[in-house]
Amino acid sequence: MFILLSSAIAPGLALFSYFYLRNQMATEPRKTLFQSFLYGALITFPIMFIQFVLKEEGVFSQPFMANVVFSSTIEEFFKWIVIFAIIYGHIEFDDPYDGILYGASISLGFATVENVLYLLSFGIDTAFIRAMLPVTSHALFGVVMGYYFGKSKFAKNDHATEYLILAFIIPLLLHLAYNTILSFQNVWFYLVAPFMLFLWWLALRKVKLAHQHLVEHLIEQNKYN
Fold first, then answer.
1. How far is residue 211's CA from residue 105's CA, in Å, rounded to a whole number?
2. Domain edges within the chain
């Protein structure tokens, strides 16, 4: 059991540590980040409950609608609403890169609990592929979502609302693409590798841009100090 739980939790911690250590300009309070991780973990249960009820009620007649469209939408919406309702206005969300950290933290909280439950059901044999695909993809969706939240909070113009919308739409489109690829039973393996490479490229580009915005933000702050 210890090995199984370690295998389920380790990928999320490793990914979060990577993005946390990428922030060389400031250190975000670990307590707040841990709380964000817990929020992400907690939303796993209402999401699974809603999915279970709708499945039992036969709301979706087509598996694609249930497993791709609805699943992607509800997961990204819950993550978005937690960041917007709890984190977005928090006093410790005080620079553009923080969005990256909070987005990744909440997403990895969700992905880690989902991973634990999956490995408990299907065994440790699936741990590697779970780490490489679902856990990693959720982390990268969270990075992209957090980037746009950071852009929104520190926007100097009237585009704040636009960035808030993009914080939901862009990760949703990525999630839809990912789940659609997995639905291609015979060829998904050949498609998912280039998609994950693209997802990593996109997320790291957002990380780089967030660093640039952070530097600009610090320079702007120093003008008034």
1. 18
2. 2-223
